[in-house]
Amino acid sequence: MINREKMTKDIKALRPLCDFLIVSMHWGDEYRLVEPGPDQKELAVFLSKQNVDLIIGHHPHVLQRVESLERPDGKETLCFYSLGNFVSNQTEKDRLLGAFMAVTFTKEILQDAAVISISDSGLLPVICHYEQEFTNTKIYPLYSYNDELLEKHRHRGIDKEMTINYFYSVLKKLDTKIIMRSPY
What separation in angstroms does the CA of 41 have from each of 28, 59, 96? Predict the structure, then answer.
């Protein structure tokens, strides 16, 4: 389904019509935690060479790292390889951790032209919580998830290694800015 020739043509047609070009990619191997696969990395480089500003990846069902890639025009492409699951009743602990992408766009006027860039970015991690019989499904920011909720999680009864520390250990491996408070 990924046709680079068509992608190149579409990007070239869209680029002059927008200040900021975002591509959403359905890619990658399911459940490949933290590190994207070689195909994802290669495709991200391809998109950066097309001067795409932001890549938002999904499909692996787990979190993967964030990376900045150099572009031919001297700017950077920011790539979120995978944001993991948001709402899901999947039953493995690594699939219960997802994230919101947080991006700050900055617009400057330079020589009568608008220049839009990303001045800050990070991930706000979330936990998909559900209880017995997959009831009471809710999304919690990790910063407000606690041991009391964790003990009620259906998966905790199956996997005692599912701890708050486990989630933080995954985030540490991502080596990116993690937002642990409300942005408001």
Answer: 9, 14, 24
**Which residues on adjacent β-strands are paired with residue 172?**
none
Contact indicator for 89, 134 with CB cutoff of 8 Å:
yes
* 105: nearest Cα among 21, 14, 2: 21
What are the tens digits of pLDDT across the range 41-54? 999 999 999 999 99
Residue type (1 letter), 96:
L
29-47 residues labelled b (16+ CB within 10 A) or e (exposed): eeebbbebeeebbebbeeb
pTM: 0.94
Question: Residue 5 pLDDT more than 80?
Answer: yes
Sketch the domain layout of the chain as residue ranges: 4-174
